[in-house]
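Q: How do we represent a protein-ligand complex in a form that can be generated token by token?
A: Start from the inputs.
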Amino acid sequence: MSKMWSGRFREPLDAAFESWQRSFPFDVRLLPQEVAASKAHALAITAAGILSDDELEKMLDGLNRVIPFSIEEASASVGTTDTALQPHLAAIVALAPQAEDIHHFVELQLTKLIGDLALKLHTGRSRNEQIATDMRLFVRDAIDQTLEGILAWREALVAQAEASGEAVMPSYTHLQRAEPVLIAHWLLAYVSMLERDFSRLVDCRNRLNLCPLGSGAIAGATLALDRKIAASVLGFDGPTPNSMDATSDRDFSLEFTQALSVLGLHISRFAEELTLHSTAEFGFLDLPERFSTGSSAMPQKKNPDLTELIRGKAGRLQGAAITLATIIKGLPLAYNKDLQEGQEPVFDASDTIHGILSVLPSFTQALSFRVDAMKTAAEKGYLNAMAAATYLTHKGVPFRKAHEKIGQAVRLGLETGRELNQLTLEELRGFGEEFGEDFFASITLEATLDCHDVIGGTARNRVQEAVSGARKRVESDKSSLASKKSAKLAEERTTVV
Ligand code: ARG
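Then emit the structure tokens for the protein with arginine bound:
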């Protein structure tokens, strides 16, 4: 009876096939989720009359001991005394070569702890709904952790924006200098992306928060279970509405990895910009030494390994989302073993993003911009040409014509090695009689910034408002995450299980 399904079989499994199809080597990390879902199921089947109160007590006590017991067994085999689960996962896998998957493992451990009573736990449930539940619980936790990380990075960006005050830099289109912007404005562009990433993950969390337990193998549990019991014990908003969907749905994994793929794209753009900015050619940035590495060959080098590695890891996040979508494409309803392959991309994406977000906020905090070099770059190369053309439109010149006239002024500047403010009024008047003495005041750096006086523009007053708005949203998201976290802890403390 070592398998969960051996009754109808006469032949043993081919040894290579048996070990190859196991998911325990990777789904071992669902141990906490599997135990929590099992406790919830034990409560539900007690209410349905399958377990007596006494049996429930033994069952819950056994389930509470599965993790410490497994850690203890594993520690003995590797000789450590660490009580955390994570460092023991590989040793736990090695303990149970016969365990097909995490569900089987928990049943085996529980049987060691409480004997045959353990075998009653599988009444009215199927591994198909269990894995769907475990994965939802895993993704929910991974989202919570990612939200914290995003918020920490947002906060670091906002703090840099606040600290940069009215410092300026050139902005780029086509990687050619375009117009001057405040450094804060550039930083807030990333904050906007992150606010969307944050809300995408919050949406995904809201949508996934329904409990598949009670869906059975495909058609619904064969017991009259009150599905609300397990759902509420596990902190779900309620049971899923359709058993066929619930056992084969992985939208939450798709949405999670796809949201991370977009987040990864944003992070990679930031990483790329900083990599460029830190080159001698740009010279905008002093890479923080504690986040950079040297070259074993060239003694002078300080390399942007952090941003490069992030750029690379963003590729992994894309890979996870694509792998998962490819697995699910065309899968007939309901559960199919293919879905087992959908776990590792989720684990990998979750580990990857958590790794990135464990360094990115402090790296961002430690950045020091070479504001003088950035300003010099913003003042050269006719970055005020749009502002100059706009000056002419205020004098009644149609923009198309204004563009042409300023283009001619730029051409003269290029030929004579001067910026627009170094041309004489007479020279300018040669391109149009609308030029007046006030032209020069309208193309200073400040005026060039301030003419973008629209919501979302880089005018100094607009950016100041935007920075304080971004700060307020950081604070309010922080307090809502903190209150959700404390509500979750309180709920865990008061739950009987
Ligand atoms: N290890 C399996 C998975 O991850 C659990 C579900 C197995 N169900 C089944 N009918 N074989 O997908």
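Residues 23, 27, 101, 127-128, 131, 335, 337, 339-340 surround arginine (CB under 6 Å). The CA atoms of residues 41 and 95 lie 26 Å apart.
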